[in-house]
């Protein structure tokens, strides 16, 4: 597949065209709409050529709506919380954007708390906004404050791989010891296990399997885990 | 982003808890240093030092200048280091952060004030011409412990550098091009190595060597010790942080002596390896 740089035109044409991450539709001077890439990577499309996207890797997160992210609370501004999600701007989280929150009954967050939230509004010219409940059901569904555990930073491609149910890493680790994780699309993964040694093993495995840091395959990870005494 | 957000509460609690059990997040032992990887460039005096993900580039350049009137018999050494946003997104260009000031002062103390290079040997013609050696340090990536990495890169660059040979006949000075006469190494008194130890608020946690970025941010105090392989102490720097008992400091000195010897062997081996690949004829 072809590799493109930001700003290059992509020949995406279909009656029912759907543009995925990294592609933008721009009306050129003549009036004809042109599809332009906004990221560096490989152009990929679905079999019937109606879905197009850019597959690339980077460490800097650009917020997109409906993505789940792990954020760190930085400060409070009135009723809202300012949360760092690794993007160019801090995100805002309304104090009431939690399941069952009312003016009298609010979750007690502190500066430095970790949150698992969903990006509800992301525009390149505005600060992103977060919500801590599912869009359809308006229930927590796993969003909210993350207590205990540890935070691992990885590349964006790695967290997409971890979210793939067919990827080998978490089932392999889970077969050895119970673990909990919250994977953010912004390159941050929260992990929790009973012993600190197990958490450190998970963190080192994530860094080893990361395409940036070597990209270990399953057999190598098994050997690596045997040396770690978990 | 000008100011980085401090580590989150779960990270802080986990690291403190794991360190109580002497477990480091990257799997190293408490007193294990990341092995430095030294890469030499095509020019003499160009060294890149990588300790894990922390990478520093050092370059040495020399030119002849007129010495200042108060020191007519000595050469001059200047060290230039600047932290750009390339090192980490915490640093802003133009405004020296606290870390940058610490780095500059430590480099100055370890590489210049401890008399590593013999300045009198840099004098060519008293009062007229001396060598001005410039060491430039670029921090390419900060993943913890920039100071040690920068000092190591600097000292290896100074050892790697060769200045052109100079001939003085009466008042005439002839600089020979490296292709005519083999360039000459700088005359160095000793080779100091810098080692940084981090301490944590809980008194039962032992100190650890070569902190990573997260460990540095969460530490309660940093102690930097510079010494050479001959057990001579050059610099001790402890800027604030929790108080230390004299016994702790002496224990750290013993550890530092062993590590300095290991580093010395490693540096010498790498320099020799690199020197063999270069073709410098001596006629």
Helix content of chain A: 10-25%
The radius of gyration over CA of chain B amounts to 21 Å
Largest sheet of chain A: 5 strands, mixed, barrel
User: What is the name of the CATH class of the largest domain in chain A?
Assistant: Mainly Beta
β-strand number of chain A:
15
The CATH H-level homologous superfamily of the largest domain in chain A: Nucleic acid-binding proteins
**Number of helical stretches of at least 4 residues of chain B:** 5
Cα(first) to Cα(last) distance of chain B is 56 Å
GO molecular function, one term (chain A): RNA binding
Keywords (chain A): Cytoplasm, Exonuclease, Exosome, Hydrolase, Nuclease, Nucleus, RNA-binding, rRNA processing
InterPro entries (chain A): Exosome_RNA_bind1/RRP40/RRP4, KH_dom_type_1, KH_dom_type_1_sf, NA-bd_OB-fold, RRP40_KH-I, Rrp40_N_euk, Rrp40_S1
Subcellular location (chain A): Cytoplasm; Nucleus, Nucleolus
Supply database-style keywords.
heterodimer, A: 230 residues, alpha+beta, Ribosomal Protein S8, Chain: A, domain 1, five-stranded mixed barrel, four-stranded mixed β-sheet, flat, B: 283 residues, Ribosomal Protein S5, domain 2, 14 strands, 29% helix
Walkthrough of the structure:
The complex is a heterodimer of chains A (230) and B (283). Chain A is built from 4 helices and 15 strands. Chain A is α+β, with helices and mostly antiparallel strands and 230 residues long. Chain A folds into 3 domains: 2-55, OB fold (Dihydrolipoamide Acetyltransferase, E2P) (Beta Barrel); 67-146, Nucleic acid-binding proteins (OB fold (Dihydrolipoamide Acetyltransferase, E2P), Beta Barrel); 150-227, Ribosomal Protein S8, Chain: A, domain 1, CATH 3.30.1370.10. Chain A has a 5-stranded mixed beta barrel with strand order 7-8-9-11-10. A 4-stranded mixed β-sheet of chain A has the order 1-5-6-2, with no helix packed on it. Chain A has a 3-stranded antiparallel β-sheet with strand order 13-15-14, with helices on one face. In chain A, strand 10 (114-121) and strand 11 (129-132) form a beta hairpin. In chain A, helix 3 runs antiparallel to helix 4. The longest helix of chain A has 14 residues, at 196-209. The N and C termini of chain A lie far apart (41 Å). By secondary structure, chain B is an alpha+beta fold. Chain B has a single domain, classed as Ribosomal Protein S5, domain 2 (2-Layer Sandwich). In chain B, the strands form 4 sheets. In chain B, strands 1, 2, 3, 4, 5 and 6 form a 6-stranded mixed β-sheet that branches. Chain B has a 4-stranded antiparallel β-sheet with strand order 12-11-13-14. Chain B has a two-stranded antiparallel sheet with strand order 7-10. In chain B, helix 2 packs parallel to helix 3. Chain B starts with 8 loop residues before the first helix and ends in a 6-residue tail after the last helix. The mean pLDDT of chain B is 88.
